[in-house]
Amino acid sequence: MTPRPESSGPFPEQPPNRQRTEPPTPARKKKPARKATQPAGSRAAGAARVGAGGTTRGAARAASEATSAPVPENSPQLTPPEAELAVSPAVDSDDRDRLLHGTHHAPHSVLGAHPVPGGVAFRAFRPYARAVTVVSGGVTVALHDDGDGFFSGLLPLNEVPAYRLRVAYEGTELETEDAYRFLPTLGELDLHLIGEGRHEQLWTVLGAHPTTHQGVTGTRFSVWAPNAQGVRVAGSFNFWDGTGFPMRSLGATGVWELFVPGIGEGELYKFEITRPDGSKTLRADPMARRTEVPPATSSIVTSSAYEWGDAEWLERRAEVPAHRAPLSVYEVHLPSWRPGLTYRQLAEQLPAYVKDLGFTHVELMPVAEHPFGGSWGYQVTGFYAPTARLGTPDDFKYLVDALHRAGIGVIMDWVPAHFPRDEWALAEFDGRPLYEHSDPLRAAHPDWGTLEFDFGRREVRNFLVANALYWCEEFHIDGLRVDAVASMLYLDYSREPGQWTPNEHGGRENLDAVAFLQEMNATVYRRVPGVVTIAEESTAWDGVTRATHHRGPSGFGGLGFGLKWNMGWMHDSLEYMSHEPVHRKYHHGEMTFSMVYAYSENYVLPISHDEVVHGKRSLVSKMPGDWWRQRADLRAYLGFMWAHPGKQLLFMGQEFAQGAEWSEAHGPDWWLLDPHYGAEADHRGVRDLVRDLNTVYRATPALWQYDTEPAGFRWVTGDAADDNVLAFLRYDADGSPLLAVSHFAPVVRHDYRIGVPDDVPAWHEVLNTDAARYGGGGVVNPGPVKPEPQGRHGRPASIRLTLPPLATLWLRPA
Fold this sequence. Notes:
The protein is an alpha+beta fold.
């Protein structure tokens, strides 16, 4: 952020490039002095009156006191101006009308103190005030009440002094700095970068920031609203009447700015925008870093005092790229994981629970502020604010810090594809399409009733790219799972012919969205080492996880993501598991097809919230058969999932075989783990399995080191459809193998022969999902299993195993 310009002299300088100029000084002629005529609505220079309860002084007395009272060191002296040079200090009718109607783009050029012929003109706009007095050193000079909240006076000064305003209202009086005597709080470099759409720390200059400016404490407000006729700040500090708080336009950038002295953290505010048609709208700050608790919608002035304790975590998280490291994710909807807990209360429970189960990361369903809880955070209105439902931004930092100190990474769902139409938020923010595309066919999202961002507009791209950086830099987020990428990439997504327009090449690709995603990924990876970006992309788009500078067959550079959700694997494998075992041999390819494209991208295998809501049933309830078989199938499936190339993601509640669909209203059914519940052991057994899967997984590089390279995988048998058996080997960088065998039939197969390498003297079972402690039948292979020189599955040796019903086995060299 660029340094802010400060006054170089003993008195505040006036803002440059004032839009309103004072009348030129008339040519002087040597002639006898004549009496000045007093303009209507003003008083002669030096005339003054005090506020309510005071006395009125004559012009002579005011001038005498002004010149004889003690004056601060270096203050300009009050000297009588020549009467023939005096001009009216009052706000002229045009400026007055524009200020009253909220359409003035340069209020600082009118209000405040300005050198004019005959002295310094003071003008204040204080609706509802009974009197306004200028206070400078030991001098107090009351301004004339010009009506409608305007006050003015001409003081016989050679320069603008340091001054304050004493404002009298009915029953009270306050002394304050004049907001219209300050220079802009945004520097030239900030404005240049905003105009170019390249301000990577946009949140540090736009929005509301408590600060000290020109030696005065207050809050600087700034907002991008290029189509507005005028913008004013309204809030709790001015009784939600922004009339007296007009902002100034900072040129072609479309940014409006105002420094308001004397207010700070905790104040509520919004921006009152005068649209191009003259109507007004009250809007929450798009850059607000804190909001009220929904359904209230105000933004809150905030600053952070949080001191992080995760330096060690941050230092080592970039040591190994995510695709070559163990990554096992527990997906959490924070408001319902333990309903009623705050961020800080969650910090006392969530890290311990996740660490006990062995997950490497949590993925938090969108924590950015959203008006409707039932959207689960996927319709965002406060892109820069953690939801206030659970606490303050610093409270959310405390939760992230606690997870890091427990050795757990934090991935956050991020939603740059669209936003809701709430009239107080981003939709037609300044009276015209701004954040959304100006073409209605491109703006309206056909599935969700929301609006799509205009990715082709540089300021909108800047808003979103900076937002990605904001979460990573300010909240130490370790990964961004980007929602609904497919809906961004295709112009015809969920649209019928005639409802979309091809791109400039005649194709269906959204070139603007492609460029945005490439810029976002490149910027995040450049600025925040160790962070991973993950795409929820459900199509076969070429190069989602390819580097942006590497072009693929389609002619596009890669999108630059680190990982991609493997939606194909998820749909195919769940479809297979939903069939009765007797029919699974006809669907065997649904479990093997994923290996045809397993290395086309860097994949995550997701069993997310989307798969356990809206009538899809919970994971265990997708399995056929009775309760025993459902649990056995679930355990076998989890064992297959953890062994398959790719990282893992499991939604909360599925780790203990919750039978009901997830509901954000009450969260996981924790009562299933109550020791007094009759079937508690069944649910605890599945959770114990998940813990052991993670424990063995993290200790076995063969299961994660070569996830994205063909050298890390070898089929043993992928065609044993009649037996419902799949077997494969995973290898680490040193060539050490793990053998995974999944058996999806409800029978025991004795002496089942599996081909193995002949250079391993013996194998031992390190995990068996049918173990009794998991709720299984206890059919295991105790002791070392030695190869026999009998070829099988194209290998020179084989071992004989007892395959439990509906189970997965993992074996390693003994």
